[in-house]
Amino acid sequence: MSRTTTKPSVVSAATARAQPSANLYDEITARIIADLEAGRLPWVQPWGNSGVAAPLALPKNAATGRRYSGINVLILWGAVVERGYAGQSWLTFRQALALGGSVRKGESGTTVVYADRFIPGEERQRA
Questions:
Q1: Structural domain includes residue 4
Q2: Which domain holds residue 46?
Q3: What is the side-by-side strand order in the sheet with 9-11?
């Protein structure tokens, strides 16, 4: 299997840290419905289609190697198919800059959902 180097795609860092808004939920729901109406199951890996250049893989952060999970997998798979990306590696804008890269003018990020464990204040103080 040959190994090719691809440029990581950019994920909006500010949006990734923000709480999901109703607009994000609406956008994701609309994408899923559109895929279903087109006869595609968005939770099934779309690889094997002639129009998909990316290898079979779960999306991961190119800087940390951390795999995306949950709804983010569907969001990022959809972006790979829709935009014709050749890889499954993603960076935030700031990560791209920190690694010496740049983002082309006019490019836009793909919004992902950031989720973290909630630890009540009392438990944090006890720890």
A1: no
A2: 9-126
A3: 9-11, 89-92, 60-61
**In percent, how much of the chain has pLDDT > 90?**
18
Most confident of 15-19, 24-28, 40-44, 102-106: 102-106
**pLDDT confidence of 1, banded at 50, 70, 90?**
very low
Residue for token digits 């840290």? 17
- The structure tokens 């990020």 sit at 109
Tokens for 109, please give them.
Answer: 């990020």
- Model confidence pTM above 0.70: no
Residue 53 lies in a domain: yes
Instruction: Flag whether 40 is in a domain.
Output: yes
